[in-house]
Amino acid sequence: MTKSKALLIICTLIIIIFGFYFYKNKNYNYDLSKINLIEVTHSIFYAPQYVALEKGFFEEEGLEINLSIGNGSDKAMTALISKDADIGLLGPETSIYIYNQGKENYMVNFALLTQKAGNYLISRIPISNFTWDDVKNKKIIGGRAGGMPEMILEYVLKRNNINPSKDVEIIQNLQFSSTASAFASGLGDFTIEFEPSAFTLEKQNKGYIVLPMSKSSGIIPYTSYMASKEFIKNNPEKIQHFTNAIYKAQVWVNTHSAKEIAEVIHPYFKENNISELSLMIDRYLKQDVWNITPLFLEKDFNLLQNILDSSGELNNRVDFNDLVNNSFSKNSIKCFK
Predict the structure, then answer these.
(1) What angle do CA 118, 120, 125 make, to 5 degrees?
(2) Percent of residues in the chain assigned helix, strand, coil, to nearest 5
(3) Do residues 246 and 55 lie in contact, with contact meaning Cβ atoms separated by under 8 Å?
(4) Does 273 share its domain with 254?
């Protein structure tokens, strides 16, 4: 065999191999569909999302994600309404508010990420054998009225026979992103914080975790992915591929250790080392805060409306089928068993 013929065979084999590779990985190209995703805040509570980003699950589905932070559900929802964002990760209660305002292009939830509260009740002083009676006549930094952190706090207080408007003073006039720093500066006797803020307060000896809110609240549809009715109608393929990526990440997170998850999401939380991240993630794993599938169950949606009603934030009850579309989640589960 001549040298030129051998070279030709080698080049042909290379072309076949690369052709097969790109055929098998046809979503791996330079023409990915762009999705503007806004998250209500930046938290380890959303670890599966960062896993999907870092493990390339979105790219596998042909999507390029442009991630931004809303720093509050009101700002995140405004971005969705104005079409500055395509998909939002925020509390599903916001979709109910928008629907009840009579918006024609309302938001529809299509994938549930977290199934429990992800914040902690933090005390200014260590408390052994904490009971909810310990918060009576104290000041608690809560959240804005109508938001999930505030409503879940009130829900838990009521379940423990504490009147939120009489037995405690709840501070509600702070920006979501500034509650931890306000507490560290001396405001309040208690605060409710997500990771990594809860860990930071502990590390600085500015606060002490007395219990996870999930322990008292139980299963609650806390954070979901949503998009406008119009966007879902016009882009069902994008929504399906997005849901596929999230489901892959949920499966991955629920089958890997806290350290393995920490190593993957570390680029999003460089202020903490792997050991610190592992500790925070391990806390969340032990609480089962992450949904194991993207399915948003009707009973959980009804519970959410009960909580809104109890907080005086529900004008009218909404039909589950109007605001939740589980078809994409069902397809993902079916395809990636």
Answers:
(1) 170
(2) 50, 15, 35
(3) no
(4) yes
| pTM, full prediction | 0.87
Q: At what angle do helices 258-265 and 274-287 cross, to 10 degrees?
A: 120
Buried b or exposed e, range 187-198, using 16+ CB within 10 angstroms: ebbbbbbbbbbb
Please say whether the beta carbons of 208 and 126 come within 8 A. Answer: yes
Cα dihedral 105, 106, 107, 109, rounded to 10, equals: -110
Residues 261, 325 within the same domain: yes
* Residue 171: its H or E element: strand 169-171
Q: What is the DSSP letter of 176?
A: G
Whether the CA torsion 90, 96, 100, 103 is positive or negative: it is positive
Is the pLDDT at 8 greater than 70, yes or no? no
**Phi, then psi, of 206 in degrees rounded to 5:** -100, -10
Looking at residue 111, its amino acid is A
Query: What's residue 28's pLDDT?
Result: 41
Please write the tens of the pLDDT for every residue from 68-101.
999 888 899 999 999 999 999 999 999 999 999 9
Number of domains within the chain:
2
Residue 14 located in a structural domain: no
**Which two three-digit tokens encode residue 250?**
């949920």
Tokens of 21: 């590779």
Closest CA to 120 of 204, 199, 203: 199
Does residue 193 sit in helix, strand or coil? Answer: strand
Name the phi and psi angles at 291, rounded to 5. Answer: -60, 145
Q: How far apart are CA 312 and CA 145, in angstroms?
A: 10
CA angle 293, 298, 301 (to 5 degrees): 95
Distance CA 5, CA 203 (A): 68
Q: Which domain holds residue 157?
A: 119-217
Give residue-wise pLDDT tens across range 173-191. 888 788 999 999 999 999 9
